[in-house]
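Tutorial sheet, problem 5. The two components below are modelled jointly, 974 residues in total.
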Amino acid sequence: MSTPSRFKKDKEIIAEYESQVKEIRAQLVEQQKCLEQQTEMRVQLLQDLQDFFRKKAEIETEYSRNLEKLAERFMAKTRSTKDHQQYKKDQNLLSPVNCWYLLLNQVRRESKDHATLSDIYLNNVIMRFMQISEDSTRMFKKSKEIAFQLHEDLMKVLNELYTVMKTYHMYHAESISAESKLKEAEKQEEKQIGRSGDPVFHIRLEERHQRRSSVKKIEKMKEKRQAKYSENKLKSIKARNEYLLTLEATNASVFKYYIHDLSDLIDCCDLGYHASLNRALRTYLSAEYNLETSRHEGLDIIENAVDNLEPRSDKQRFMEMYPAAFCPPMKFEFQSHMGDEVCQVSAQQPVQAELMLRYQQLQSRLATLKIENEEVKKTTEATLQTIQDMVTIEDYDVSECFQHSRSTESVKSTVSETYLSKPSIAKRRANQQETEQFYFMKLREYLEGSNLITKLQAKHDLLQRTLGEGHKAEYMTTRTRDRLSPS
Amino acid sequence: MSTPSRFKKDKEIIAEYESQVKEIRAQLVEQQKCLEQQTEMRVQLLQDLQDFFRKKAEIETEYSRNLEKLAERFMAKTRSTKDHQQYKKDQNLLSPVNCWYLLLNQVRRESKDHATLSDIYLNNVIMRFMQISEDSTRMFKKSKEIAFQLHEDLMKVLNELYTVMKTYHMYHAESISAESKLKEAEKQEEKQIGRSGDPVFHIRLEERHQRRSSVKKIEKMKEKRQAKYSENKLKSIKARNEYLLTLEATNASVFKYYIHDLSDLIDCCDLGYHASLNRALRTYLSAEYNLETSRHEGLDIIENAVDNLEPRSDKQRFMEMYPAAFCPPMKFEFQSHMGDEVCQVSAQQPVQAELMLRYQQLQSRLATLKIENEEVKKTTEATLQTIQDMVTIEDYDVSECFQHSRSTESVKSTVSETYLSKPSIAKRRANQQETEQFYFMKLREYLEGSNLITKLQAKHDLLQRTLGEGHKAEYMTTRTRDRLSPS
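Model answer (structure tokens):
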């Protein structure tokens, strides 16, 4: 350390020390304020979370009730219908009705799940936040108690520093004063010695004696001051050593407080906070994820039922439901007249040729009709396929509507635009109905043709059987003729 | 066919035929009624679906609005706080505050998604059901037109059967009558021949002549009747053949109608119904699944934030937020007194032994203190670990509450029982607070000990440095003493 231009006065040093300590004190107070504020913010956040979940629980309960009412309204309606009882009895529902019931079931499921959600909010999540709030307050108090002790310790250390510094100042001042007194004594001695060396022509003996005793006195004083100085010097060194050691200890304590203890104090406030908050929020997440899983399961059941929307089996069920209407009637039997014992086509001589001609005409007419009708059938089937393609177009994906951009505002607008825009739908429907019109025209044409073919084919086949049975038929008709004819 | 005990009379046959046709007519009417009823049920179902989704859209809208209000209420509250502005500016939120904001974001997201759901119900799903309803009605009409034609065709066939049957009856009756007339003539002829074969002793010539002309007359009549019979017999055979052919054609037509055409008629009614219903329900499913996906994404964001609930980084942020309070102060510097140029511990002869003794005492005291405090530290840390284990217990899984058994009634009861049952919670909390109490006691003990150690250690280290510096220190202290001391 180079020599300062001017020494700091004691008062200056004390003032500097005191301002430094005052600053630390202010910081300690400020730290407590910060921790208190943090705790207040936590308590406020936890209060907000409780309010939030209490209000959300209300919303979920209301939503649940509305869904339950909705399901109940339609359940009651379907329960009252005869069809429902019919269906329930059979446990064999038409596939669209099955979908409808599952849709109502899903709403009930959603209703139950949202009620459960509300229940978990109220009886679990909110309770947790309450407890975390209590805990935070308690932890802050504990932390405050510890902080109080730490601050006291720190102040003790600083006071000690003050004391040893003052002691050093005092002993050092005394040492300086002793040194200056010693130096003064040495100066006097030098002066005395100088005077004794002067030419002494006019000095009296008495005067000489007086001077010698004065020198002796000065020497004695010098020795005394030397001793005093040495003693003070040692005291001053010890005091400075103590000051230096205490200074080191103080700085170490202050450092320890700011670097380690403060962190420990904050940790005390934090004890369990993040972990408990984590568990509370995970309870919320668990509830939400489970609601989602349940919802998903329900939707999968509906999707499965939608996959099973099937006209073929429904047609079967429909016809089975009304057996009297759809059961084919008895065949029309041949009613023999007045004991006419012949009940088959006669192809004996007088009519054989005519039947054969008729058979051949039927055969050729049928060939033509079948070719014609096959054409109509192909057109009908192709048109039906076109309609099937139209009605099975996969136009039901609405995922675009649920895109969330970072700016949450841009969701709404896309919904109405992208799907089912009115003009395109109208055009599509007009096109579909036109195709339907054509299909039904062709279907009628085909049915007309096939009805005629059925009739002619039946006659043709009977004639073929009759004429083809050869001599057996010949024998039959001969035998019956023999019996009936008198000759 | 064995000979019947008695022939059916014509009227009986006609009555039987008519009753059979009446039955078929009644079935045709019944079939139309069934199809009409089916269509009505479909229209009703589609109306129910529309009403259902309209009502559900209302519920979703209300739910969405409530969620939006909820989010807005807390958003507004946080926006107004100073802290919020502080945080927003920094974009460096404390982890619990981050969770809170994401929770509010999630509610807004849910609000938007449920609004979208409602929008899709109203502008897409319901529209589809309306169109399917229109289509069903139109298809039924088309099917009815075709049914009308098919029924007419069938009636034509049945009428034809009636006609040919009557014709057969007529010709067969005529044939029988001709046959009996022929037989009568044959009988007369036999009688005449028998009479001519009698002994003719008393027969006059005139009588003889008369008899011969009579035989001739009978023969002529017989021939005529034979011809008539043959003619009628042929007509009867032809009529019976026609009857049999028409019977075959009729049965084929009836069979075709019941087995094929009826199915086609039902298909006409069904045209597009299942496919369109499928698409409508898939639109609903797409909306629901997408809502779910969006919800899930939102929850994942929150879960990520919950994973990042971290005391360490929050402590860092907290201290950075208040630098004035937490910044370590300047070191206390050695303040030399009145130009005292020594600023280090002096270890020259008069104090050296004492310092050495002090150093050794410090050393041994520190060793003891450290051992003691290490024990306290271990206990403190173990207790802290116990608390950490308590506060990180994984007690947040609520999946049990969302189990749906087939009987939907059994869900509700489980909720309140399984989780957070009051006595167990109270016990757990009491236990936790007891552990906390012990922890803080030990922590204070540890801090007290470590503060003392810090102070002593600082002094010890300084002495060690001073004494250890050997002759350099010796030289330093000697030099300064030389300067200060006068001799």
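Marking note: The first helix of chain A runs from residue 10 to 80. Full credit if you identified this.
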